[in-house]
Design a protein that fits this description.
Layout: E1 2-6, H1 13-24, E2 29-30, H2 42-51, E3 54-57, H3 61-67, E4 73-79, H4 82-95, H5 102-106, H6 110-120, H7 127-135, H8 139-145, H9 148-153, H10 164-176, E5 179-182, H11 186-196, H12 221-226, H13 228-250, E6 263-270, E7 274-281, E8 288-294, E9 297-304, H14 309-315, E10 320-324, E11 336-341, E12 347-351
Parallel strand pairs: 1-3, 1-4, 2-3, 4-5
Antiparallel strand pairs: 6-7, 7-10, 8-9, 8-11, 11-12
Length: 354
């Protein structure tokens, strides 16, 4: 199964990446695509799409739409309360200006370095100083800090100022992708999401957590009111996304994957050269692994992950299988073929009658 994480900066991405890196292995993953040279050229994107099972990066959803076949991926993202998000984002950039962070400071582009020095000089206890900081942001700096969650998820107006219509566009994205979570509900939401991809976890790691917010506080009303222009559309998105999440959970589109999933396996036909059919989990997109038997004798193990237009239109997943008999085996009339879901007693049977 291929997985794509739209990694909104400072929204639990390090914890998410760690789970998939541990589960899939580093060779099968490409994280922080925004810094990956292969992502910048078409040939490199083809290699990444072919060789990697997990992709993530600080890349806007529209770019992922343009460069990847999203139908091949389980796509998800995480949102964060915009007040906590802007505080964390500012603190993270401010940290780069510390004398003992010089090596990390040098690794960032010049505009980030300049922004770090600018933030370091702001008195965040002074409302006027904060307002001046917001007003003086350059276009490039505003792209980083101005309602960034909407910027990541909107499907149009890329690079332009964020407006109310972009909130609608971002909500459309959340309704289209396979799942999304809230950082404030990460223990529940991340567990649900990773289980939907076939991974089981016992706990959610907490990675890349800042030890200091430099006095910045989401409880400081003066500070938050001064930063309002940078978060007002994100606030609208977060409020509506929270309601959408509750609606989808209630409608059972977002399910608790800690519960057993139902699996269906079906043989369409068996002839002199092959056996074919389909198998799928009702909720999870992970492909079903099957054992094939003839007259109770094990033949082979296969995976139901093939594309068939009728199945994809019906189930929105690749779940077909085809097993070709080798030259040493020819079915005879009356042979009993059994396809069983691996490690279960769930099976289907077909008798060769030709």
């Amino acid at each position: 199964m291929k997985v794509l994480f739209v990694h909104i900066a400072k929204a639990a991405g390090s914890s998410v990446n760690k789970i998939f890196l541990d589960a899939f292995g580093y060779e099968a993953c490409a994280v922080h695509l925004e810094s990956n040279q292969e992502w910048r050229v078409a040939s490199g994107i083809e290699v990444l799409a072919k060789e990697k099972n997990y992709l993530s990066g600080h890349i806007v959803y529209r770019e992922f739409m343009d460069k990847l076949n999203l139908g091949e991926y389980f796509v998800f993202t995480f949102l964060r309360n915009p007040i906590a998000h802007v505080v964390s984002h500012l603190a993270w950039i401010k940290k780069l200006a510390e004398p003992n962070e010089i090596e990390r400071f040098k690794q960032h582009p010049e505009y980030i370095q300049s922004l770090a020095m600018k933030i370091d000089k702001v008195n965040f206890d002074d409302a006027l100083d904060v307002l001046r900081f917001v007003e003086d942001l350059s276009a490039q700096e505003r792209n980083l800090l101005d309602n960034p969650q909407v910027r990541y998820l909107r499907q149009s107006n890329i690079g332009g100022l964020v407006g109310a219509a972009d909130v609608d566009s971002s909500l459309k994205t959340l309704a289209e992708i396979d799942d999304f979570g809230l950082v404030e509900c990460i223990d529940v939401d991340l567990a649900r999401i990773v289980r939907a991809t076939g991974i089981n976890i016992t706990s959610v790691p907490k990675e890349n957590v800042l030890s200091s917010k430099y006095g910045l506080s989401s409880l400081n009303d003066v500070l938050i009111n001064s930063l309002y222009e940078l978060i007002r559309h994100d606030m609208s998105l977060y409020e509506r996304a929270s309601a959408l999440r509750e609606e989808l959970i209630a409608s059972e589109r977002l399910k608790d994957f800690s519960l057993p999933d139902q699996v269906v396996v079906h043989i369409d036909a068996v002839n002199k050269s092959l056996l074919h059919g389909w198998a799928r989990y009702e909720r999870s997109k992970v492909p079903v692994i099957l054992d094939i038997f003839v007259n109770a004798v094990f033949l082979d193990k296969i995976t139901a992950s093939g594309y068939r237009v009728d199945l994809y239109e019906k189930f929105s997943k690749n779940c077909a299988f085809v097993y070709k008999f080798d030259g040493d085996f020819k079915p005879s009339k009356g042979d009993v073929f059994t396809v069983r879901v691996a490690n279960t007693e769930i099976k289907t049977v077909k008798i060769f009658s030709s």
